[in-house]
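Re: weekly structure request thread

Next one in the queue (88 aa):
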Amino acid sequence: MKAMVLKKVAPIEEKPLELEDWPTPAPGPKEILVKISACGVCHTELDEIEGRLQPTMSSYLAISFHVQVGALSLLSFKAKTIIRRQLL
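Done, posted below.
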């Protein structure tokens, strides 16, 4: 999978984010895997990237943008059971 990783806090013009290949995670017992097809950056995330707000530790390791579009890629057995129960 691809991940945008924050390597340094800097103005966006200095390209502080780098595109990296990461291993595709396997979903846990009650988790799903979503294949993201498009992703955006909100203003708060831009403030973290550029240093106007202190980034959280998880943001420093890899920005997890919350404005995303995707499709279910893989569901664990328990996740399928939970989803079925919610649909009934």
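The chain has three helices and four strands. The CA atoms of residues 5 and 62 lie 4 Å apart.
Next request, please.
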